[in-house]
Amino acid sequence: MTTTELARIPFFPPDLFEGDREVLLRLLRESGTCAAQRFILGEQTALLERELAEQLGAVDVVACGSGTSALTLVLAAMEIGPGDEVVVPAFGCAPLASSVLSVGARPVFADVDPWTMVVDLAAMEQRIGPRTKALMPAHLFSVMADMPAILALAERHGLRLLEDSAVAQGGVLAGRPAGLWGEAGVYSFVQVKTFGMPGEGGVVVTRDAELGRTVRMLRNHGQDGKARFRHHRIGWNSRFDELQAAFQRHRLPGLPGRLARRAEIAAYYTERFAPLAERGVLAPPPGTEGRCYYVYTLLAQRRNALHEHLAARGIDSHAYYPQALPRQPAFAPYTRPGDRWPAADRAADRALSIPVYPHLTDSQIERIAEAVCDFPFN
Ligand SMILES: Cc1ncc(COP(=O)(O)O)c(C=O)c1O
After folding, report:
1. Where is the active site (predicted)?
2. Residue 226 a catalytic site member
């Protein structure tokens, strides 16, 4: 069989939930016909929150409308607002900046590590000033930010710490799960995430009961759950869907197995790609400590050529993120003259992610690795 006859390997697989299709249909029927007719923030949501809290050792888990709104709710619960600054990575997903702006504060962009692409500690410290209220590091692709050092930095400067762990559910660093290093962390449940689902949602996870209570209020128009239509704070509608909660509860026991398969695929890639480092394609740092293989990302000197090369072999790849955050038209106006982010710009030019989802077969993984290794490097 020639490569053109082989089935295409998509980057975003269309069959993520195929194995659970019957369960999903059953839950849809049960949820749609149950006597209570409660479709948001009901029993299933409460059970999912409790099960996640138990699994993590968190004091509270609050399910909400998305990872983005989880960040916004925590920032609001921390009373971060106009006049405040939050130090965020210069490379990553738009909500890192937009959530800060949405509460009226200003994101200050710190450059990233040239290999791991997570925020650089020294750059983060340099960006701390008199208006800084919080640090918001993010885990990226497969690597957790250096949370022990960032926690120490936050404590040294008396700053709040919000951990954007949207993509790192399942990662563990120094025995502590991603999400529990900050006063609060978040997970996104968008379908391609490690605990993704067929819809929109996320959670706030926290070790701080009071913060959890405030987030709980803010997700439902500032009501405290005791008196309806009594609004203690200006809140949002960021509620969680009961059908999705029931489906997530069904999928939770399978999460460790899916994470292990992701790690296994990543370890294979990293071993195969080690010799490519001198030829312009750098694999992420190996290992499992502080790692969570949500996405497997290469740094390629000729990124676009590698993307084309893989496409010609029926393999989809994806460039997250083709522009650093402070270069985006939406966020550039909030930067300061003279600020530079050379490592973030380089990452934007070079990062290329290849498929790493758990239901890839061994032969697909082999085919992907072969195709990368076959790239004409010069
Ligand atoms: C680092 C980071 N933060 C926040 C989010 C937002 O999550 P959601 O898409 O659920 O709003 C994402 C989503 O990809 C992300 O990658």
Report:
1. 193 (proton acceptor)
2. no
Give yes or no for a contact between 116 and 143, defined as CB atoms under 8 angstroms apart: yes
- What are the domain boundaries of the chain? 20-252, 254-373
Beta strand pairing status for 172-173 and 281-282?
unpaired
As beta bridge partners, residue 186 has: 204
Is the CB of 167 inside a 6 Å radius of any atom of ligand 1? yes
d(CA 229, CA 49): 24
- The CATH homologous superfamily of the domain defined by 254-373: Aspartate Aminotransferase, domain 1 (3.90.1150.10)
* Pocket probe mutation, ligand 1, options 86, 118, 187, 190, max atoms within 8 Å of Cβ: 190
Q: What is the pLDDT along the chain (378 residues), one digit of tens a residue?
A: 455 468 999 999 999 999 999 999 999 999 999 999 999 999 999 999 999 999 999 999 999 999 999 999 999 999 999 999 999 999 999 999 999 999 999 999 999 999 999 999 999 999 999 999 999 999 999 999 999 999 999 999 999 999 999 999 999 999 999 999 999 999 999 999 999 999 999 999 999 999 999 999 999 999 998 999 999 999 999 999 999 999 999 999 999 999 999 999 999 999 999 999 999 999 999 999 999 999 999 999 999 999 999 999 999 999 999 999 999 999 999 999 999 999 999 999 999 999 999 999 999 999 999 999 999 976
**CB-CB contact of 255 with 350 (8 Å):** no
Q: Candidates 12, 86, 93: which one to mutate for ligand 1, based on the most atoms within 8 Å of Cβ?
A: 93
Give the CA angle between residues 77, 138, 46 to the nearest 5°: 50
Domain 20-252 indexed as CATH 3.40.190.10: no
Question: Catalytic one among 193, 313, 327, 367?
Answer: 193
Note the residue count of the chain.
378
277 Cα to the center of ligand 1, angstroms: 29
Q: Is the CB of 166 under 6 A from ligand 1?
A: yes
**3-class SS of residue 108:** strand
Task: Let me know if 302 is exposed, middle or buried by CB neighbors in 10 A (0-12, 13-18, 19+).
Answer: middle
